[in-house]
Amino acid sequence: MDVLLPSLLTDLTDPPEDARPMVRWWWFGGAVTESGIDDQLGSMARSGLGGVELAFVYPLEVGPQPGFGSPAFGRLIGYAARRARDLGLRFDLTLGSGWSFGGGHIPPAHAAQRLRWEERAVGPGAQQVSLPGRWPEDRLVAAYLADGVPEDNPHAYSPAAIDGDIVIVPAGTGPRSLLVATSGPTGQQVKRASGGAEGPVLDHYSRAATEHHLSALADPLLEAAGAEHVTAVFCDSLEVYQADWTPAIVEEFRARRGYDPLPLLFHLRGERSEGADFRADFHRTLSDLYEDHFLAPLHAWARGHGVLLRVQSYGAPPARVSSYRKVDLIEGEGWGWRGIPETKWAASAAHHLGVPVVSSETWTWVNSPSFRARPVDLKGEAHEHLLSGINQFIGHGWPYSPRDAVEPGWAFYAAGAISDRNAWWSAAPDLFVYLQRLCALLRRGEHVADVALWLPYQDTFAAFGVGRHLNLWRAATERIGAAVPAALREAGYDFDVIDEQTSADSILRRHRVIVVAGSATLPEADSQRLQELARRGIAVVVVDAEVLPEAIHVAMNDMNDTNDTNDTSGLIAAVGAVLAPDVVADDAEVAVLHRRHDDGELYLVVNTGPRRVVTAVTPRTAHACWQTWNAHDGSADAPRSGPIRAELGPYEAVVVVTSPHPCAAATPEPGPEAQAGSAPIPLPTWEFTGPDRAVRAVTLPHVWEEDGLDDAVGTGTYVTTVTLGEAVPTRLVLDASALLIPARTASRSQSYQALDPAPVGVVATVRVNGQVAGVLWDHPFEIGVGHLLRPGPNRIELDVSGTSVAGMRSPQWRAVYESAERAYGHRFTMQEIDRAFEPTRTGIFVVPALR
């Protein structure tokens, strides 16, 4: 059989090991043993995982254990790193405990800082106001006077002289407002810290603070692991709340912006337009300092030790998308193919920086609580990451758990429990190799994104103020809004986000259109840059603003008869006037990712919804021949000519490759008889042995929870015998077409949950005549068994396993967390633990058939 894009075929049939998913490996305090390390790393390797990112979090075991940073703790890190190497697993190391970086080694001078403001009325008389800090390490920064009392909302402030901790108020003519700015530590403590690692978060704008952390904590951690065993060191997402100050910022601002910030600092309190440019300059300076004083020394340290630096560079401090140029390995987080999640932020940077592999923290909030997620949930969310441009998964995560821990074992307070303590773990190898194949395929060629979204930094920086988290990703994407990216993706255009530091050559090479949305103002430098790009052939489309008179302007905020809507038709028409959509699927739930190759095109076509769809896929790039590849089994269908058509079950994906060269021989669509197959042989009656070891005769469908097994965790076995004649069926089929789509239950907005009408809850290992045929866990819930069947009697067994969430209901399991809180204080809250008590469905919900 001919294979299109033969240079990619080995990535489908024999994908490289470095494309395997990894997991974040949580160590709960120092309750770790060498035998436990051996056990869990060995299980990871056997399951098809490619490595670990070691993370140190809060203790769960009460009793003696090595303290964080102790020699005994270091020896355990070193042992784990060596064993991972021996097993062929990648080993990454987090440079601290919990997040963000910090701990007891951080003195007040190196802790995250913030401004605090206080305003009060003063009379007309001269006076000297003493303002010692109410909190340790507070410092007086500036003071301002304005006519009128605070209730008058004054805005014309003038600087007042200060002398140490004294504000000198001169005589006036009437009541005035005295506005005072002080700085000091935010007080934020490291979140989810290990025992002995507690302390303040460091100042991410201070090079001295960064270098102190590297010397005091990162050096000994890396020395314990052995740099030769470590692929990359890791910095998690930035969650340094309310940090808007650093002692050197006045001097840094003067040097970078060319004027003194102190006379204008009061503008940080308000939202008046006359202070917008200053607020933008101030917060842009914080972005500069984060890059120069945190990322740059961190990167230099990593290079000096011969390891790579992997960073989730978004959040607070206000990290720009272009800040990723300061790191080696780019990582995102979050799902949502119609929007601009952190995964799209990270992948956009990777595309423009020429970085072929971009990872994501995956399954951060999947179908919570921890043990509630199923393989199809993991697969469905993973697709959303792939559609944003991700091609390396860092699963969140594997909780280290002793084998004798109360079932289902220790759990992180959030995220999916991606470990062999899950009852459905028999499906894990299939899931992981499926994701490995897709990641391998999506690392080759070039991601196609005709559109670039210009990030509205000026307005975003200007809108930051007192009490607001300086999360540039979140605030900038909120200004753009949800309608713009959704309309582009649904119309068949992919996009990257870009900013003022994105290479012009890269923009010109990769994009045809720049969309400016969410920008009411543009700095002169940005305007000139966009105009230059327009002169060089890029169409610039501006949404709901008049910031570039010569650009194409479209309006979205039109009114209809009943409601305010975002009418995106003008935007799509403007983009469409420049070029046709890249690839269009005619079902709204089907999303497509496109990668271009020299000898053809590759499209990942994903059904992101819970119903079966048949969709036409229409690419702009002409093709004479196309072929589908199956990432589940590494197979390729025969090449076909003509229009592309995909049949996809719920949350199912297929790889379509196209070629401009004609097919060697056209393959017709299968006729109705071939599609239908022979008459099925239903298998309704079985003998069932449940996790309680009781044996009973059942007629399918069969639901455990309706048969006295409400809180069962584990595996039950269904056995039947079927006698066949000379004509042996080829497949065992569990047809879910008659099942209703489950209703969604309320959960956190970022908690991904697939809503598939699954015929089995949750996985079924199929054995025929004593031999394993495979594992059923995903649509279309069919498995080849003809090679194991024979004329005469045949024994068929289905080992069915649900999730392990029922174990989280037991008082014994909860007692572990209650005792840890009594011993170590309140360090976490189990995410949506109440949902562990929601009804589960385990068993077989249809009548299997041989066909």
From TrEMBL:
Ranges that cross the membrane: none
Pfam families reported for this sequence: Glyco_hydro_106
Gene3D superfamilies: 3.40.50.880, Galactose-binding domain-like
InterPro entries associated with the record: Class_I_gatase-like, Galactose-bd-like_sf, Ulvan_degrading_GH
Name under which the protein is recorded: Glycoside hydrolase
Organism listed in the record: Occultella glacieicola
